[in-house]
Design goal:
The chain is α+β, with helices and mostly antiparallel strands and about 150 residues long. About 30% of the residues lie in helices and about 45% in strands. The protein is globular. The N and C termini lie far apart (about 45 Å).
Length: about 150
């Protein structure tokens, strides 16, 4: 097993319509306004930017995100990631009754030296850190969508 490789999946059930959720998630530069752990998004051009995140643990993760797929008809937003994380992340937005299911999938390899050094003993803590970040993101998005 490669201890520096992670796969994550989160499922957010939201009461807003799919098009509204898609539009909010497509505006990555706005994430710091509603997702506390996304500390900064600095656009580089129309399809890429530098993202800095920090969850419960006292370290920042910085990566360049480059859009690889933006397909509103299919409800898909996908990025490639390079930097402290190398890999990809994808949102898939679908109707769910009167609301929306937003599924987040991510496959990354950790390149940040600190995280590589503690890959084996820290793995459960790193996974928990990610879960807490995603939970806070869902809460933030719900509040953001209600305010719109």
């Amino acid at each position: 097993m490669d201890w520096t490789h992670y796969r994550f999946r989160s499922r957010w059930t939201l009461s807003a319509p799919p098009a509204t959720v898609y539009e909010a998630l497509a505006q990555a530069e706005d994430y710091p306004r509603w997702w506390p752990q996304v500390r900064e998004v600095t656009p580089l051009d129309d399809i890429s930017g530098v993202v800095r995140i920090r969850s419960v643990l006292p370290y920042d993760i910085t990566f360049t995100a480059r859009q690889t797929r933006r397909d509103p008809a299919a409800g898909v937003l996908e990025i490639a990631m390079t930097g402290d994380l190398q890999g990809w992340a994808r949102w898939t937005i679908t109707a769910d009754g009167d609301g929306t299911l937003a599924r987040y999938d991510q496959a990354v390899e950790v390149h940040k030296p600190l995280l590589r050094r503690f890959a084996v003993p820290g793995r459960p803590v790193f996974r928990l850190n990610h879960r807490l970040m995603m939970r806070a993101g869902r809460r933030g998005l719900v509040a953001h969508l209600e305010a719109v």
